[in-house]
Design goal:
This protein has a domain of 162 residues. It contains 13 helices and 11 strands. It has a 9-stranded mixed beta sheet with strand order 6-5-4-1-2-3-9-11-10. A hairpin with a 6-residue loop joins β7 and β8. α2 packs across α11.
Length: 307
Amino acid sequence: MQIKRKNIFKQYKWLKEKNKFFIISADYDGLICASFLHHHLNWKLSGYYDYNSIWLSENALKNKKDLIWVDLNILPSSGKSIGSQIVTLNNNPIGLKTSCNPNIINEIDSKNFNMKFPFSTLLFLMWLHKINYSREDIGKLLILNSDNSWMKIQKYSNNIDSWTNILSDFNWQNFKKNISTIDYENKIDQYLYPKLINMGAVSGYSKLTSKYLNIKSRECKFNPDWDNDIILKLFNLFAENLKWTPPKLPEIIKRIEGKKLAINIDEINKMGLDKFFKKYKVFSYAITSPKILKYTIFNKYDNAKSE
């Protein structure tokens, strides 16, 4: 099966529209998507979401029914989102009909977890809009750092090859070129990670390790309440090396506190996914392993406490 761009744009027309308002995941992956979308489509960054809290600007509140949630999957049927996590058990929840996700399109669910989309939301967006990147430079390091795509290229070559065939008509070979080398790992270890650490843009480690030097993958999660300096530094880093015009930082006027929970998938199967979501009023979720589903519940925007 090959996924066709024209079919995606037919179903999700908003993905090629300009001047949309959007919310991003509060991490490196969300920020680099924000830079891409603002530069190429002039989308307006309007807030952040970290699966515990939502930070909203005035634009977000005024356009809350038309917001697009990037690098995220949300359930309210009025919400539009684009993400790349596993979100399906046996069928797609009703609320995800407005969610563009390569795993949903390719009918990948929790039972074939090892076949899930291996790249980042950024690379899916780049494929979708046919924005290739051919240089062997810092820009490539930054792009492939999103969702640790470079490590996945190293470790899951069969699945990578499968998805590059599914998402054809794109220069995937350039992104894969020279990744499984000690030289590339040295660039990460001696340049990229130290640079991000010096910027304060590393919040911890994630589970993957590299093929040759056993480099532990880093992650960058931020808190919009006090990390605007980190956000600006990353936007400037992307602008300098990728030539993507950075978006204006949203002025946050409201924060919604939520609750993040986890449940065994076997428990959900007893009830059914849609019934579970309806009963507990789930706002967003992700299947993070073949056995575990993590989800978030929220009060309505109107009941949220302003900062």
